[in-house]
Amino acid sequence: MKQLSQQELNHLMMLHQQSRYAEGIKEAQRLIKSFPGELMLFNILGVCLEQEGAFQKAADAYKQALSINPAIPELQFNLGAMLYALNEPKKAIHHYEEAIRLNPNFTEAYFNLGTLHQSQSEYSQAINAYEKALTIQPGFYEALANIGTIKQLQGRLDEAIECFKRTITIQEDAKGHYNLAGAYRNQGNLILAIDHFKKAIDLGSNEPEFYSDLGDALWHDGQIKAAKEFLHMAVKIDPQHPRANYQLAVFLYDNKEFKLAMNYFEQSQFEDWQERVLYCHYKLKQFKLFEDKLLALTALKNNSPFLATLSTHFAQNFQKQDSYKFCPSPLDFVCHQKIPELTKNNKALIKSLLSDIDSADIGQRKQSRLTAGIQSSGNLFKRPEQSFQILKDALIKVIAEYYQNIKNRDCEFVRSFPTNIEFSSSWYVKMQNGGHLNSHIHEDGWISGAVYLSIPPQTLPSDDGSIELSTDGDDYPKMHNDFPIKTILPEAGEVIFFPSSVFHRTIPFQSDEERICIAFDVKPEA
């Protein structure tokens, strides 16, 4: 029987090594006709097809090879990778596990298995796989970095930071510093976040995200000029980059450069860019263009609180019917109640929260709408302090009860209410004498609200220090002043929350005592 010669195999290997994959595919297919039992030919064919992006054909080639000999771990691994690329995770897991069974020290198989579990939000299985890879290869810093990323997603920020620090000691690179910066940013430490974003850039990386995220961190630290420079640099590196364009647009939008902002939003095509463009048209009083785009967008999107804000204001402003039925009469959906966990045991939890706010190493964010006050950076509910975790659990219970009370109402706000209550952001706000927060909405929320920890004694007029809720705010252009308003003076131990489409502001107050609350957003589910 004729056998495949070493010369023919070497020629095929050379085509692969020289990245001449199309030629390699043709040569492998030609040889397979003569040597249908040669496992190596199917493997090389699979590798070349994979490099050409023909994942299904590559998977078929690896299956053919495994039908000849299923006991080769590398082939099981290759097939697993193709099945993952073809979005068949369960089958991919089977072949990665088979590769590990055949070779218990197959580090890359453990890593890929971890990546697959991570992509499926199966975090404990992912960490287990990464840890096994690290046991075999302690210097496998990519596996360690992925463990850090998972711990950050789980809110275990101190552990995430330690993982990222260890990756840098193994291999100092731009990505390691970028990961560490993101964890510090989430923890609320803007100073260290900025420092590590800069180190990521200094190490030679030309990734737009590094410049864009540095610019965003500088902006929230109040370094406006430097922020603008880095945000522009990100777009200069990659003019087509969606998130870089979006972050620059948000900066310009917040600084009232609406015409420029629209250009970058349209270039980004990212997240809620269409609502942001509509906002710019409205602010520029381009009402006809706004109305045309509003009608087109409301026909496509039924679950955007930001779009509901714009549609409701426009309808009430020009006395038209609001065709967007996201949350009719949104002030009827306001919740105001006590949180039992805050008021029991002589308000012990409030005292713990105030103590942790004062003593924890939490950075401050510069907030342009806030007068005579400070706001924390990061996400308090992802911090390790027990008081924040107890409050988070208490809020989840209150919001779940709130949903039970509204679940029979017929509107999209209720129909698409988040199944799992997760806080996309949470921060404290401290206000001193004369403090207030200008009217605004939280564009990327679903529910927005605040828990009140300290309220100064009431003074005349009686609404000093109250929260004012309305369908009008943020200096939207107005044809009249006939917009509904609800004013609530909260007490310590209470929570007030509402659909994120509702404008809210704090009315100025005069007192020597601080007004302290923890604000939060529940973000829509993807």
Automatic annotation (TrEMBL):
SMART domains noted in UniProt: SEL1, TPR
Name under which the protein is recorded: TPR repeat
- What domain of life does the native source organism fall in? Bacteria
Chaperone listed as a keyword: no
Q: Enumerate the GO terms in the molecular function aspect.
A: glycosyltransferase activity
Concerning Pfam families, the annotation shows:
2OG-FeII_Oxy_5 (PF13759), TPR_1 (PF00515), TPR_12 (PF13424), TPR_16 (PF13432)
Q: Which PROSITE patterns match?
A: TPR, TPR_REGION
Q: Which SUPFAM superfamilies does the record associate with it? A: Clavaminate synthase-like, TPR-like
